[in-house]
Design a protein that fits this description.
heterodimer; A: about 190 residues; alpha+beta; Alpha-Beta Plaits; four-stranded antiparallel beta sheet; 4 helices; about 55% helix; elongated; B: about 230 residues; 2 domains
């Protein structure tokens, strides 16, 4: 049968030892916290200093580069002026309509017995035309040739007859029609 | 009272290591770490901004240096493009040009009206609006239109209206004309904006070649002296 151990240490000594052990642990913990906080503080401060130093280097380089560019200001202005003007000319050229092409297409499409008396454009999408024709057949020929790819078809896409009536005095057909222009037809 | 003070002193002395360690940690945290951490994002963003500016400036410097050898070509092209698109409205010169074109085309310029200057919406340039009334034969009117399309100062025909009721083959034509100009302010450009000019670019060479094909109409400057004794004479 095992003998039971008898604790010979007094109770107050036991508590004192326990308290010293706690104090020692707390001391070590506080030292550890100081080391950890010290390390992260050092790291963050070092990083901040590095960022600030880099920023200062960039600032110095910016001043240097600006100085270099300043010496070439004239060529910069000329280049920018040329660039912006070329862009505007390209834009204007793109938007321009060449009405000489419209007249040439119209001249090709009008038969010998049809005469145009007035013409008015409405933007670059349609043209209103009025005139006199010898007959309804001539008017029909005019419309057909206006849409013929060899004659006026490169410019005109469709035709709407707005009026066509017989002039009793002259015996001619007085007509007015709208010619629709192709997209980019007079560019 | 004295007893309790002595008691605290004893406790402090006994736990000096712990208190010192924690106090220093807290001090470092509050006085160094927290201000550093709070300053870091601002400093990083400032540094990044400076880096971006430097990058743009270096790119610009590189571009300008590459254009340096082409400075003579740029100057010539600027002079050429200035004729097509001046920096000022130059309305009298424009109207003189339209008059010269009409004379050269063999049409009579019955009226030429200045309709004002307006800013193009969402564009950097301005347009000059004009209305011209011409009279002449069909061939001459057609020639006038072709000449307007080929004049060195760019003129766009905006609207056309013909009337042949005058008889004897004479047409009366009303033309809506538009010309353009681009004011070039000395300090208008953003110094950080990149220069995209590439003189060997197909689009650029096409525009330069197009301008080279245009016909120059130089207005004659009057040499008559200014100032009269009696302006009603």
């Amino acid at each position: 049968m095992p003998r039971k151990d008898i604790n010979l240490l007094p109770q107050d000594l036991k508590e004192q030892k326990k308290s010293e052990k706690i104090k020692k642990s707390l001391g070590n913990l506080s030292l550890l916290s100081l080391v950890v906080v010290g390390l992260i503080t050092f790291a963050s401060s070092a990083y901040l200093v590095r960022v600030k130093l880099t920023e200062a280097t960039f600032k110095k380089d910016i001043v240097k580069t600006e100085g270099e560019i300043k010496d070439l200001l004239l060529i910069e202005k000329e280049a920018r002026r040329l660039e912006s003007k070329i862009n505007v000319v390209a834009d204007v050229k793109e938007s321009r309509s060449r009405y000489s092409l419209l007249l040439e297409a119209l001249a090709k499409a009008v038969p010998g017995d049809v005469g145009i008396t007035s013409l008015a454009t409405f933007g670059a999408s349609r043209v209103s035309v009025s005139g006199l024709s010898q007959s309804y057949l001539s008017l029909s020929r005019f419309i057909t040739s206006a849409l013929d790819p060899i004659l006026g078809g490169k410019v005109f896409s469709s035709v709407d007859i707005t009026a066509a009536s017989l002039d009793e005095v002259t015996g001619k057909i007085r007509f007015s029609l709208v010619l629709y222009l192709r997209d980019g037809g007079i560019k | 009272m004295n007893f309790s003070l002595l008691g605290y002193k004893e406790i402090i002395l006994e736990n000096a290591k712990v208190i010192l360690g924690l106090g220093l940690s807290l001090g470092l945290l509050l006085l160094v770490f927290l201000p550093t951490i709070s300053a870091l994002p601002g400093s990083i963003s400032k540094r990044n901004e400076q880096e971006k500016i430097l990058g743009l400036l270096e790119e610009k410097s590189k571009k300008i240096n590459s254009l340096l050898s082409l400075s003579q070509t740029i100057k010539t092209d600027v002079t050429l493009v200035d004729k097509a698109l001046p920096s000022k409205d130059e309305v009298p010169s424009l109207m003189t040009q339209i008059q010269a074109i009409a004379t050269e085309s063999g049409v009579t310029l019955k009226a030429l009206q200045f309709g004002g200057i307006s800013k193009m919406p969402e564009k950097i340039y301005k347009k000059i609006i004009l209305q011209a009334v011409l009279e002449g034969g069909y061939a001459n009117i057609l020639k006038d239109l072709v000449n307007l399309e080929k004049t060195s100062r760019i003129i766009n025909v905006d609207s056309v209206s013909f009337d042949s009721r005058k008889g004897e083959g004479v047409l009366s034509v009303s033309l809506g004309l538009v010309s353009f100009f681009l004011e070039s302010g000395e300090s208008e450009f953003d110094p950080l904006a990149p220069i995209n000019l590439n003189l060997s670019d197909k689009g650029v060479t096409q525009i330069i070649d197009f301008i080279k094909t245009l016909k120059i109409y130089e207005p004659q400057v009057s040499s008559i002296e200014v100032g009269r004794g009696n302006p009603f004479e």
